[in-house]
């Protein structure tokens, strides 16, 4: 009997291109492999002990003789490479119709109506890198009080504002207004509050970022677990990604280390069901910023703390380390990359040195977790429980 599963998402830690990646504009992408190549090596002994180097297709690190975990990889079945799509698929949903993107910015009629409702003009309304656009438009924003609106290759409406110009609470209200307006014909997967502080030339984004996602279109693994009376604890931005659906308790985190600390706190307590963690720094601080050295260091910092996490697992606990998409910091542009995700499963009840192979959907994670917890499986996904227990 498995009592609890910690699904632990290393946001954007992809491990190489899928057969269909070129159709997404991604050729030769490999977040992990290209980081190792660019940095001339990486020290992740604890991930290797679990079998990270044994996963088919992983480049830059070696397989070991007797890994302590079950290991494999999964292809993304849904039509997308964004965070929402990746997490929903991990939780058992396929997104056939991709979320709408806005490479030309948002239509004028929506922007006019939005400005009217928030009582402020806006700046930007173009696809941009968040750190670059606040440097460009920050001074004007500080003069005029107009928030900076930008999007990306993802389906996002991002609202950046200096915390001393638009107080956080007002920024969140503005996001809620946008969220409501962008549910219809003009729709985004996420509205994101992007507060920052500092002065021109030295702006810094804060951890008061909030994501306002649309709700999953159908019940997910999380809803099923909750309906079965289980705990579904969300650490980091998981609550936002699922718009709170199927979650019984949530905590937001300020960075990767905090995410690990909060997960450990929950592992120490007694609960039954799912702990779903997301560590976003890999993606937000290094992947989108195209910073392979920073990304490598973040992976090494995570690896150093991995034993603490594993030690906290109780007899009937299991951890599944995985990712939601790639974000190759050596690739052109600043966007996500479509890639395989790693799957590492570890626990006292999990067989060691088992290759679960290449799964055809992230949803196999959902099916397996449901199977382990003895609850109904979501509509899609194939359980690999029999292989690992
Ligand atoms: O460049 P920044 O602001 O980090 O934004 C990135 O983060 C967004 C959400 O993860 C992506 O859509 C991309 O736009
Ligand atoms: Mn992500
Ligand atoms: Mn991202």
Automatic annotation (TrEMBL):
Task of the protein: Isomerase that catalyzes the conversion of deoxy-ribose 1-phosphate (dRib-1-P) and ribose 1-phosphate (Rib-1-P) to deoxy-ribose 5-phosphate (dRib-5-P) and ribose 5-phosphate (Rib-5-P), respectively.
Domain Metalloenzyme per the UniProt entry, residue ranges: 4-377
Official protein name in the record: Phosphopentomutase
Enzyme class: isomerase
Organism: Geosporobacter ferrireducens
One of the GO BP terms on file: nucleotide metabolic process
Subcellular location: Cytoplasm
Main subcellular localisation: cytoplasm
Family classification: Belongs to the phosphopentomutase family.
Catalyzed reactions: 2-deoxy-alpha-D-ribose 1-phosphate = 2-deoxy-D-ribose 5-phosphate; alpha-D-ribose 1-phosphate = D-ribose 5-phosphate
Residues reported to bind Mn(2+) 2: 283, 288, 336
E.C. designation(s): 5.4.2.7
Gene: deoB
Residues bound to Mn(2+) 1: 11, 324-325
Keyword annotations: Cytoplasm, Isomerase, Manganese, Metal-binding
Cofactor binding: number and manner: Binds 2 manganese ions.
Domain of life: Bacteria
């Amino acid at each position: 009997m498995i009592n609890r599963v910690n699904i632990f998402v290393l946001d954007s830690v992809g491990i190489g291109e899928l057969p269909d990646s070129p159709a997404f504009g991604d050729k030769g992408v490999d977040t992990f492999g290209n980081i190792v190549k660019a940095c001339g090596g990486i020290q992740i002994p604890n991930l290797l002990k679990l079998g990270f180097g044994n996963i088919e297709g992983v480049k830059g690190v070696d397989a070991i003789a007797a890994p302590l975990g079950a290991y494999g990889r999964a292809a993304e079945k849904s039509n997308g490479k964004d965070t929402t799509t990746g997490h929903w698929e991990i939780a058992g949903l396929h997104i056939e119709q991709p979320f709408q993107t806005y490479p030309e910015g948002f239509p004028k009629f929506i922007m006019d109506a939005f400005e009217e409702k928030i009582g402020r003009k806006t700046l930007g309304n173009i696809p941009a890198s968040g750190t670059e656009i606040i440097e460009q438009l920050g001074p004007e924003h500080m003069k005029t009080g107009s928030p900076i609106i930008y999007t990306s290759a993802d389906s996002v409406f991002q609202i950046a504002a200096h915390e001393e110009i638009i107080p956080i609470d007002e920024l969140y209200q503005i996001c809620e207004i946008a969220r409501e307006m962008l549910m219809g014909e003009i729709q985004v997967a996420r509205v994101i509050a992007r507060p920052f502080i500092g002065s021109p030339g030295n702006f810094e984004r804060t951890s008061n970022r909030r994501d306002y996602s649309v709700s999953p279109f159908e019940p997910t693994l999380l809803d099923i677990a909750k309906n079965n009376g289980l705990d579904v604890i969300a650490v980091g931005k998981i609550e936002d990604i699922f718009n709170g659906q199927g979650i019984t308790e949530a905590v937001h985190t300020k960075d990767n280390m905090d995410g690990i600390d909060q997960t450990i706190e929950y592992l120490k307590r007694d609960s039954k069901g799912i702990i779903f963690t997301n560590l976003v720094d890999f993606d937000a601080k290094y992947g989108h910023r195209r910073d392979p050295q920073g990304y490598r260091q973040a992976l090494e910092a995570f690896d150093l703390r991995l034993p603490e996490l594993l030690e906290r697992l109780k007899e009937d606990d299991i951890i599944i380390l995985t990712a939601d998409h790639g974000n190759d910091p050596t690739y052109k542009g600043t966007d996500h990359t479509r890639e395989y995700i790693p799957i590492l499963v570890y626990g006292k009840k999990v067989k060691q040195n088992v290759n679960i192979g290449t799964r055809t959907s992230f949803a196999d994670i959902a099916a397996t977790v449901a199977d382990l917890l003895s609850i109904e499986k979501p509509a899609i996904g194939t359980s690999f429980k029999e292989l690992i227990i």
